[in-house]
Amino acid sequence: xxxxxxxxxxxxxxxxxxxxxxxxxxxxxxxxxxxxxxxxxxxxxxxxxxxxxxxxxxxxxxxxxxxxxxxxxxx
Length: 75
Fold this sequence. Notes:
Elements: E1 2-9, H1 14-22, E2 27-32, E3 39-44, H2 48-59, E4 65-72
Antiparallel strand pairs: 1-3, 1-4, 2-3
């Protein structure tokens, strides 16, 4: 299954966070954005539960991440 994760950051180097995110095998693409959200990441997981665990344990635990919003692809 695919999901997109919107990431808002604290004051930090967006490129450094982007590079860290791209090091995870679950992240297939990630891009820096203009606007309310700072990064958009496309993730692949076997189940919604696996995606949720990945987001909570790997993305939300990063010190520069303020908040995330996960959008699971319906089809």
